[in-house]
Each structure stands twice: as structure tokens, then as C-alpha cells.
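ERR on first pass: missing label on line 2. Operator R.T. fixed the label and resubmitted. Corrected input:
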Amino acid sequence: MTDSSHTPLLDTIDDPSDIRKLDVAELRQLCADIRTFLIDSVARTGGHLGAGLGTVELAVALHYAFQTPEDKIIWDVGHQAYPHKIITGRKDRFHTIRQYGGISGFLKRKESPYDVFGAGHATTSISAALGVAAARDFSGEDYRVVSVIGDGAMTGGMAYEAMNNCGLLKKNMIVVLNDNNMSIAPNVWAISNYFNEIIASPTYNRFRANIWDLAGKLDHLGDRLRRVAARLEGGIKSVLTPGMLFEALGFRYFGPISGHNVVTLTKIFEEVQEWSGPVLVHVITQKGKGYEPAEKDGMNLHGVSPFDKITGKSPKSGGAQSYTGVFADALVEIVKSNEKVVGITAAMSTGTGLDKLQREVPEKYFDVGIAEQHAVTFAAGMATEGYIPVAAIYSTFLQRAFDQVIHDVAIQDLHVVFAIDRGGLVGADGPTHHGAYDLSYLRMIPGMVIMAPADEQELRDMLYTAVELKGPVALRYPRGSGVGLELRGGFEMLPVGKGVTLRKGSDVAILAVGSMVANAGKAAELLANGGVNAEVINMRFIKPLDTALLDEVASRFKHVITVEDNAVLGGFGSAVAEYYAQKHLPDLRMKIHGLPDDYIEHGSQSELYRSLGLDALGIARTAGELMGVTISATIENLA
Ligand SMILES: Cc1ncc(C[n+]2csc(CCOP(=O)(O)OP(=O)(O)O)c2C)c(N)n1
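pass 2 clean. output:
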């Protein structure tokens, strides 16, 4: 695919049936080709790199040993499944990954029969695999079911709920634990300490070395492994190996084994697929394997922009500071001046900016693992004791903790601050990651205060305000750069439930929240060029609404348009419409402009917003339509 790639064996592979025609000894070369291809390709497009470099042998061995797609492999999360994508018919489109109209960076049923279960969020694969296995047995079919889950995902409670159920149902299925000791950041999985201690123990290692020496000397590896397994099951293992935990949950455990010896992996998968009941194969891999810059990087080049293959470095992007960065700075300042405030992340320390708090005030920093539900209830517990937890969780991941937000925080009126990053469309990560629903799912909760900053200064002030208020408070802000404001020092307490009028007008009122405020401002300029005088209001608060301002708007305007980067169903515009519906305003024409009732695919943020008419021109056109005015070509040209 690229001028620099030399991948002769991979070039002959269209799908796994081609791999299964290879001699097992050729698999090493295939793995080398896949790595070369992966590095070349992601260097050009950007995307997830480190995790995929660690699963090359795993993907090849699984597709070699199992008759996919009849046998079903269910990957967790999906960012580590690039090698799987490359060998399941998507090599030729791989250069389009995460781009508008291109293939997804995660798993997608619509994209390929090999993507058995869609993913993007962590810790779903064991539950999904068990469901598939249960359905298979109902249908009287006999294919194999394999789930591949990372050690990071094992910090999520659903993995244990699923394993508990596996032990009960005793379905034939295999869970491959892809253990690289890393989440995005170093993992906080307490159980891995337990593994590491056992693995480091001299008795265990002597025992294991004997077994593998023996296994290596014998041709009939299958028989050998069967006997080894029998011995392990005889009880020695339960004393000496890490499997006890899984065995207690009803799994037969095999491992730990190297995830980078493709030949051994293949043989083991061929072997364990004959075992009955739930089986766990514990595979040790290295994130970033085989690419020096990734092996050396603290985060193993987890997610990258296009980069230089030699150095592994991406060009520095200039421009305004990100909202995440502004939030992180503000939080650290607040934590330093208010001893009650703590920060909580669910395995997203760098993504949320909380790594800054970790560095500067480590005792006030908590990484609870990929456990958003626990993060929220843990925060609620702290709040009962007078602490002020700031739970920094991406919009899409907070969906997991919906009941905890209601049941543990809001009903008890506890003062927890939800710092909701990635509100709105996130871009290349696509529908599993867009923060499209938070205004809807939070707005219905009694007592919840919800705000969205229009710029980075407002973000600082909103965080401060949220910490100073009482009860549950959410502020949601977008992925990406602020508008480039020069920040003033200190913080300002914002009046709750009050919007600000940014531009006076007389023909149409544009009420906007968050990142849409800037677009609305530009739309008003375009409209002005077309002779339409638009008023622009930054509502700031989605809840409580500034009803006095809404009344005043309704008294002066016949045309009102609301703009948001949230689903139109149940979002900010809905709130305004609900309010106006009580007021009997027969002359008011209103349009709710936001994300449609559909899943928005991946692409750059600007492409997506443009395609949905949520850029300045789109907003101007929508306002024009509402008023029955055609936006002139001059305006189109100016945009
Ligand atoms: C519910 C949820 N929270 C957070 C994330 C963000 N996230 C993506 S990958 C990842 C780490 C996963 O670690 P692991 O399962 O060990 O996979 P690896 O990257 O090591 O292959 C996290 C936290 C997510 N995808 N889903």
C-alpha cells in the first residue's frame, strides 16, 4: 500500500482463509509484515498504535486456529483490533481508517462479518461472548466463541459480572486475557500485582520452566499440553499459578503464556478449543511491541496523530490551549486553594488532564480504573463526608454511570461536580465516542445544574462556580482547542441560571450553548451581510434555564432558533421548547438545531459539524429557512 512497505506475505492475504493456507512456520513472517504495514499506515493517518502492535500475533493465531467467521472472535474496546482488521478484508481500505467515509477505528458489525460485536467502550466482550454462546446452544450449533479482553478492561466491574455468569452457565467459550500491564496509562488493576508476585516466585518459575522445556522437546505439542493441563488441573497449579482467581469463578485457566510467539499461541488455541466449559487463556503481551519509539514511550504511543516513522514523533500542533488543558490547570489551582476538593478519573488521566493533578497534588488524585459507575458512587461517598469530588469523565463514558448519577448522587442531593469532557462530536473516534447525549440524560434529573462554557475563560469560571455550589453540578465542554482567549487570573462566580446576550438583533434570536456559541456569532455576521439582524445569546446554563431571558426573547422575536452540539431529542432546545410550550405563544416560530436522531459517523469534527449544518454557514442557513429568507450566494461565499 505504501511505497516504503515491503509486505510480500501480507500482500497475499485477503482474509483469514488465506492465512489458514499458510504453513504455521510462515506465520512469523506474516506477523512481521503486519507490523510493518500497521506502522506505515498509522504513521500516515494517525490512530491507535500501541495496543495493536501488541496483538499482531494474537490476531494471527486466533484467525489461524479458529474457523472465522463461523467461529466468533469478540474483541473488547476495539482500538487494539487493527491487526484483526488488516487480515479480515480491510487491508486495502486501511488508509481510510477514522476518516470521513472511511473505515472505523473500532469494531463495527456493519463493516465486516468478522466484527462479531461492535465496541468502542471497554469491558463488554465477556458478556457479549457469553450471550453469543448461549444463543449458539439454543440454536444447536457448534461454533467456537472467543472473547479477547485487556487487563485494563478487567478493572471494569462488568467483566466480573460476566465471569460469574460464565461459571454458572458453563457454556463452551474461551476468554483470552491480553495482559500488557497497561490501560491507556499504566494500569491500576490490583489483581495484576497478585499475578506479578506469583509469576516472579522462584517455585512457580521452576515449575513452569520444566513444563515448557518438556513441551519444547516433544513434537506432539497437543498431547503434551493436554498432559500438562491435566497435571495443572490436578491441583499443583492452584497452589502455584495465577489461575486461582479465575478458577474460583468457574473457568479453566491456562497461562500465563507469551503473546508474541505466534506458533505456540496457535497450538495452544488449537488445543484449548477442544476443552469444555469456560476457559481462560492468559496471554502476556507488550504494548508497542516491535516498534522502538512505542516500546519506549510512557503511554506506548496509545493514540497518535500522523508521525515520523523514524522518531515516532508527531509534529507539534500550535494554536489555542485545549479545553482539557484549561480544565486541568483550573482544577489544580482550585485543589491547591480548597483542601476539600479532589479529582477522580476512570482510567483517563491524560485524556481528562487529571495527570496534571496527579503530578502536582497526588494525594488528591484518584484513578479508579475503567469503572465509571464506581467512580460516581465513590465520589458520592466522599461527598457525604464533606469533600467535593470533581469526577472528570468523558460524556460518552458517563453514560455507563447513569443510575449512579441519579441514585447515588442526585437523589441524595450530594455535591459532586461532573466535569464532562468530550461533550459534542469528538471526530475520528465516531459514534461510540461522540458526547451526543449528556444534556439529554442529565437534564431530566431533578436538582441537577448543567452548564456549558462558550470559551475557555467560562470553563474556568464554571468549574469554580460548580465547586462553590451545592448539590450535583455538571459542566460539559468539547474536545479540542478553546477559542484562543487570553485568560485572566483568578475565578469569577457565575450567576446560576443566567445567560448573556452577546449581540443585539431584531429579526431572529439565536440561543446557543457551549461550543455552538462561537458558530452562532459567526452565523450572525453572515446573516447581517444578507440583511438579517440576528440576536445571539450565550445561554450558559442548560439547567436551570434563564426563563426571564426567554420571556424577554419571546416578547421581542417571532423567530427563535436554539443551537447545540447535543441530540435535539431531550437536549437544550427541547428545554427551551418545553418552557415556551407552557406560555401559549401562537406567533413564535422556533427551530431546534442540533444533532439529529441518528448515529453520527466518524470524520474530523469540522467535517461532521459542517455536514450537519452546525457550522456558521449551516446555522445561518437554518435561521434563514426559519424566517423564509434565502441565504444569498454572497453569504455562501463569505463563509
Ligand atoms: C467504558 C470506557 N471507559 C474508558 C475507555 C477509554 N479507554 C480506551 S482503551 C482504554 C484502556 C484499555 O486497556 P486494556 O483493556 O488493557 O487494553 P490495551 O489498550 O492494553 O490493549 C481505555 C481506558 C473506554 N474505551 N471505555
